[in-house]
Write a structure and sequence with these properties.
Layout: H1 9-17, E1 39-48, E2 51-61, E3 66-70, H2 77-84, E4 92-97, E5 100-101, H3 106-110, E6 113-116, H4 128-139, H5 145-151, H6 168-180, E7 186-190, H7 198-213, E8 217-222, E9 234-239, E10 242-247, H8 249-256, E11 260-266, H9 271-276, E12 283-289, E13 292-297, H10 301-312, E14 317-323, H11 327-334, E15 348-349
Parallel strand pairs: 3-8, 3-9, 6-7, 7-8, 10-15
Antiparallel strand pairs: 1-2, 1-4, 4-5, 9-10, 11-13, 11-14, 12-13
Helix pairs in contact: 4-5, 4-6
Length: 352
């Protein structure tokens, strides 16, 4: 498939892996201010003719942060990544990565960034080990190729098998391993869970956690919210080229205002306790039936207050179940199906 810049997806990937490094460069930290954002965009925009792919994107991602960049297919996520890597030039606005201007200093950026692109391709006749060695030569990096393969679950026999014999999920892991070569300061991953089974997704999440513990900033896009909620410090949601929300998952829940249901199994339910629960700030209702007390909370802090209220009334709480707003419902709200982000609104930084 041809991109807006005239390159196929896998050509774009290999331009990064193989074609944009000076031979013999050693990967090492360059001098930047410690408090400088890892990624910063200011009114970044991209048009393809009459089509607005990214519209006035202003975003800041801190050094060491794990940031999930979410949105449905076609929301502008990949276009944004291409602009950050200077594979596509913006129509307007500006961006910096690791303190460097994305248009004027793209080579410096690429020395310090690992990329897992969407729509990548591999050399079917080369083994997993050879792919890692290829990435090492391209980046001027050293180290045992098998160590990278083991980090992504391809150690042992798979390391010496040709990539043409890999499953789709194994190919995704190999590309992930190539992105880790050189111990980058920033990982940019476009749909990293694509092709992975549930076990592979959990392994991907664990790798992200490990990289974050090393101090690596991680920026990854996905159209599936529950694939990233476990590992992200913050989430940004794109829809139709616009950033519609930024915040932690709890903050996004709070913005939408979805209720949480607290189900308490109790030994006794005094009628007065049920009647007075809605008097608590953040509790909108309560019902009791057959030893179960169901409390509806509009604020997260109200859940603990409700439990304390029940216990203070002399009731023994035997079990607690909490059901928050469904993650898919939240994503649907933020991406236009009943969204509270009205046309013309300024994208909102959600704060607690």
């Amino acid at each position: 498939m041809r991109r807006g810049d005239g390159h196929t997806e896998h050509e774009t990937a290999y331009r990064f892996w193989a074609g944009n490094y000076d031979a013999g460069i050693n990967i090492h930290p360059l001098d930047t201010a410690n408090d400088m954002p890892a990624i910063e965009t200011n009114s970044l925009s991209k048009r393809f003719g009459d089509v607005v792919a990214v519209d006035d994107l202003s975003l800041q991602i801190d050094d060491g942060e794990v940031f999930g960049f979410l949105g449905p297919n076609g929301a502008g996520k990949s276009t944004t990544i291409n602009m950050l890597l200077d594979f596509a030039r913006p129509t307007g606005g500006s961006a910096t990565v690791l303190g460097y201007d994305t248009q004027k200093e793209s080579q410096k950026i690429r020395k310090r960034v690992g990329v897992l692109p969407e729509g990548f391709d591999l050399y079917e006749r080369l083994s997993g080990r050879k792919h890692i060695e290829f990435a090492q030569r391209a980046k001027g990096a050293n180290g045992d190729p098998v160590e990278y393969l083991e980090r992504v679950g391809l150690g042992g026999d798979p390391a010496d098998r040709n990539a043409g014999d890999y499953s789709k999920g194994m190919k995704q892991r190999l590309a992930f391993g190539m992105a880790l070569v050189g111990e980058p300061d920033l990982l940019i991953m476009d749909e990293p869970s694509s092709g992975l089974d549930p076990t592979g997704i959990r392994e991907m999440q664990e790798i992200v956690r490990e990289e974050a513990e090393r101090g690596t900033t991680v920026f990854f896009s996905s159209h599936i919210l529950d694939h990233v909620e476990e590992v992200c410090d913050r989430i940004g949601v794109m829809n139709e080229g616009e950033l519609v929300a930024v915040g932690t998952l709890d903050e996004l829940h709070a913005r939408i205002g979805g209720d949480a249901h607290l189900e308490l199994s109790v030994d006794d339910v005094p009628e007065r306790t049920v009647d007075t629960l809605p008097d608590i700030a953040g509790v909108s209702g309560a019902t009791a039936c057959n030893g179960t007390l169901d409390v509806t909370c509009t604020e997260s802090a109200a859940k603990a207050k409700a439990i304390n209220h029940v216990e203070d009334a002399g009731t023994t709480v035997l079990d607690i179940q909490v059901e928050d707003q469904d993650i898919d419902d939240l994503f649907a709200e933020l991406t236009g199906n009943g969204s509270t982000h009205a046309e013309g609104d300024t994208p909102e930084e959600v704060v607690a």
